[in-house]
Amino acid sequence: MGDGSRGLQPRREAWSYLPHDRARSQAYRWGEDGLAGFSDVEQRLCLGLALWNGQDPILKERLFGLTGPEGNHGEDAKEYWWYLDAVPSHAWNRWRYHYPQRAFPYEDLVTTNGARGRRDPEYELLDTGVFDDDRYWVVEVHYAKADPDDLLVTVEVTNAGPERAALHVLPTLWFRNTWSWDPAATVPAMWASGPATVAVPHPFLGDLELAAAPGPDGAAPELLFCDNETNLQRLYGNPGPRYPKDGINDHVVHGAATVNPEGTGTKCAVRYRVAVDPGATVELRLRLRPEDRPGDLGADFTRVRDRRRAEADEFYAELTPAAASADEANVMRQAFAGLLWSKQFYFYDVARWLAGDPGQPRPPASREHGRNARWRTFNSFDVMSMPDKWEYPWFASWDLAFHCVALAHVDPAFAKYQLLLVCREWFQHPNGALPAYEWDFGDVNPPVQAWAALEVFALDGARDIDFLSRVFDKLLLNFTWWVNLQDSDGSDVFEGGFLGLDNIGPIDRSHLPPGYLLEQSDATGWMAAYALAMGVIAAVLRNAGRPADDLVRKFLEHLAAIRDAVESEGLWDPETGLFADRLVAPDGTVVPVAVRSMVGVIPMLAAGVADETTLSRAAAGGKHVARLLDPEGLDDEEKLAARGLLRGGPGNRQLLLGVVGVDKLERLLAQLFDPAEFLSPHGLRSVSAYHRDHPYVLDAPGLHAEIDYEPAESTVAMFGGNSNWRGPVWFPVNHLVVTSLERYHRFFGDDHTVEYPTGSGKRLRLDEVVADLWERLVSLFLVGDHGRRPCFGGVERLQRDPRWKDNLLFNEYFHGDDGAGLGASHQTGWTGLVADVIRRRHGAVDPVGHVLRRLREQGPDW
Predict the structure, then answer these.
(1) Which of 9, 126, 560, 860 has the most crowded Cβ, counting Cβ within 10 A?
(2) Crossing angle, helix 326-341 and helix 299-319, to 10 degrees?
């Protein structure tokens, strides 16, 4: 998926643009892919792994999966690989892959999945029987750095099968093709400089050399060269390069004369042929290093590699809370590893894409007005955190915000860089909009960047005021864009479309029937939370000596105006105990969309606690601010106390800021904590289980739709793919809800309890509820009482086999009833939040409110 779909096709059609069968033969325009892929920061030079079991029709150079139309639940990888370890500097990385010894069942996977419907399960690689009798290879790649430009590569190959077997192992080095689309570009070259060495001049790192150690039989590996150029003959029937991109493939598999006998090109594979006894492991070694600074492949190699592994152990030992179990430590470490492995060079120049490349045929005229045509200023040439490098090799702004909260524990500098990046002038639109996601930059994601910036600021020690100031300045523009363009009637009730929740509703919220308007409770809740977070950032900046008093007041006013609109516009549904969207028909008819889903829970995320000093400063800000903070007057303490919004005595007063009153909050929590509704054994469902037996039906003039509870894969094609928020447990919203409960506990204190679970008769403090919800989320990944990890579901190989059971997958979402992992299998980006949760639940992370309170105590101006 390296070339991916940079601005190519309408949503989901991009998965068919570059089929797997073409990928080995076509030079990529925008980026690269490969097994265990590793590259420099601009992806000029790439290193990956190819394998051949002697049975497959092609080399295994890249992961295989189904495109959206091929899969009965959308695009889906049909391979088993894991990111087992990594550190922020990438001085140590560990990757694992299980490769069948039988022929890989490409056609079976496509045909069988194609014959299944949306109500059938997916047909997985393990289901094909290709791993039966343990006839597979365990391949691990370890990268260790002696220094920034001296890379040590270890490939370990284990025969898991019952018989001696042979494998071709081809570590591969190539230049990303930067010359075919630029007539003025210089074509690089690498060449054999010795029997097992390759000279590799690099435009930034200087003259490098790849050195390969002998194989286990003592023989030097074979060096095979071709060019990273499209095979025009195979793909188009036109004359092309003599040694094209797939030349090494054709030579190894078919014996073709498609590798350069002169030992030079832009792509080189180091070919080992190893025969391995059952249960045995062989080790192969390579080193990519400066040509004038040779390092050996023996004792020095071993010393550096072992030191880097030990340093990684020490790094994670320090990061792991003392109270965490060994299993939790393993989950946390692999979650962080997946995040770090998923950093990827992301190249997308929209203006260049729309206009076409010099010397190339002009793009079709329709492209000028197609997707992202209004984003000509977008020009990414950056390293970004990807949600899933196979299934989602692109960024989404709100996904990225969650990645950053987890990444801040291990690499706060990179986390801050990511949050700033989406606000830079080559990402953010001149009108203030943030790019939503590659499929459509102009769509709308929930505005969680201010929340994430506060979390990252706190996790980084609450020191980097410059970072907070920079992101705040750009988010001011984005907040204004929301107010101007996502509130069509100026009512402070916002629209926004699907807002990242895909098909959580009965209708496509991004593409309404003509003449309809959807006033969204979640969009309104997101904006209230946005206003609150921006107000808090402004207060932090003020405390640091920046002039921000007026901005604190501005965001308090916005928060209060949204709170008043939530009350006056009737977004609360007393029947469900949740908030509801309002669908306005062309004739003016208003139809509540009272689905019991996370859409109706989002407003509770806008919750903050103002202490005595903040209250005094707000009152001093003038009657306008005071009136907006509470319609009945901020200075009327008796009324505020009677409504439950003010607690504490003189000198210790606290005011609850938000859009959900205390009475509504109690009702909402009763729904949220009900096992028959949202509370599952492993977190909070995205849609209430109530709709399992009571589907919601929406009837509006000229419109009929319905939604039920789907705890697993989606059975509707509203957003294509495997998008489904109709029941599964989903980490991002769970994390936001639970951290908001922490803030509510800070206000209510230890003397306030709620029934938890609803109907149990048991009452807990909100901090006890928080602890239980954290435990439920983490339990998805842990070995339980029956020796099983819920996330592995009914897959016995994953549950029981020693070579599989401790290698974790971080799925996109989880079955709403049993916790089985679903959707994209390596969505470490947002599901990597489990690492953050493990640290939080064991007290290694203070809530943002506690951190800010300490800041206030240090500064006299709060």
Answers:
(1) 560
(2) 110
| Whole-number pLDDT of residue 639 | 62
Among 94, 76, 77, smallest CA distance to 85 is for 94
Nearest by Cα to 711 from 813, 784, 810, 795:
813
Distance between CA atoms of 808 and 719, rounded to whole angstroms? 28
Helix (H) or strand (E) holding 271: strand 267-276
Contact call for residues 600 and 579 (beta carbons, < 8 A):
yes
**Length in residues, the chain:** 862
- Closest by CA position to 549, among listed 558, 563, 539: 539
- Mean pLDDT over residues 485-503, rounded? 87
The whole-angstrom separation of Cα 96 and Cα 104 is: 18
pLDDT of 98 > 60? The answer is: yes
Q: How far apart are CA 398 and CA 382, in angstroms?
A: 17
Judged against a pLDDT cut of 80, whether residue 616 lies above it is answered with: no
Beta bridge partners of residue 764, listed in sequence order: 754
State the alpha helices, DSSP H only, in 320-396.
Answer: 326-341, 350-355
**Phi (first) and psi of residue 655, to 5 degrees:** -115, 135
Q: How far apart are the first and last CA of the chain?
A: 50
The pLDDT of residue 1: 32
**Cα-based angle 404, 408, 409 (whole degrees, multiple of 5):** 135
Residue 218 makes CB contacts below 8 A (sequence gap 6+) with none
Q: If pLDDT is split at 50, 70 and 90, which confidence band does 10 have?
A: very low
Strand residue runs (E) in 490-618: 517-519, 572-573, 578-579, 581-584, 590-593, 607-611
Q: Closest Cα to residue 824, out of 813, 835, 832?
A: 813
Decide: helix, strand or coil at residue 592. strand
- How far is Cα 381 from Cα 391, in angstroms, rounded to an integer? 21
Element (H, E) at 770: helix 766-779
Look up the pTM and report it.
0.95
pLDDT of residue 4: 42
Compute the CA torsion angle 264, 249, 216, 803 (nearest 10 deg).
Answer: 140
**Which of 269, 232, 15 lies closest to 824 in space, CA to CA?**
15
Count the Cβ atoms, other than its own, within 10 Å of residue 295: 16
For residue 311, the surrounding DSSP H or E stretch is helix 299-319
Spatial neighbors of 785 by CB under 8 A, at least 6 apart, are none
Rg of the chain on CA atoms, in Å: 28
The separation between CA 94 and the C-alpha centre of its own chain, rounded to angstroms, equals: 20
pLDDT value of residue 7: 45
pLDDT for the residue 832: 96
What does the alpha-carbon distance between residue 88 and residue 340 come to, in Å, rounded to a whole number? 7
Confirm if 410 and 836 have CB atoms less than 8 A apart. no
Cα 276 to Cα 660: distance, rounded to the nearest angstrom? 65
Q: Inform me whether the pLDDT recorded for 276 exceeds 80.
A: yes
Q: How confident is the prediction for the chain on average, in pLDDT?
A: 91
How many angstroms separate the CA atoms of 708 and 691, rounded? 5
Q: Is the pLDDT of residue 291 over 90?
A: yes
Q: What are phi and psi of 750, to 5 degrees?
A: -75, -15
CB 486 within 8 A of CB 523: yes
H or E element at residue 345: strand 343-349
> Which residues face 209 on adjacent strands?
199, 289
Report how far apart, in Å, the C-alpha atoms of 81 and of each of 35, 272, 781 are: 9, 21, 17
For residue 757, is the peptide bond before it cis, meaning its omega torsion is within 30 degrees of 0? yes
